[in-house]
Amino acid sequence: MMNIGIDLISFYTPQYFLDLKTLAEARGVDPNKFYTGIGQEKMGLPPPDEDIVTMAASAALPILEKIDLKDVELLMLGTESGIDQSKAAAMFAHSLLKLPTRCRAFELKEACYAATAGLQMAIAWIERNPTKKALVIGSDVARYDLRSPGEPTQGAGAVAMLVAANPRILAIDPESGYHAEDVMDFWRPNYRDEALVDGKYSMLVYISSMLDAWKQYKVLSGRKFEDFAAFCYHLPFTKMAEKAHTKLAKEAGRPHPSPAELQKQIGSSLIYNRITGNTYAASLYEGLNSLLDNTADDLAGRRIAMFSYGSGCMAEFFSGVLQTGYQQHLFSAKHHILLDNRAELSYQQYEDIFQLAFPTDGGDHMFAQYRTGPFRMSGVKDHKRLYEKVK
Ligand code: HMG
Question: How many helices (H) and strands (E) does the chain have?
Answer without folding.
Answer: 12, 18
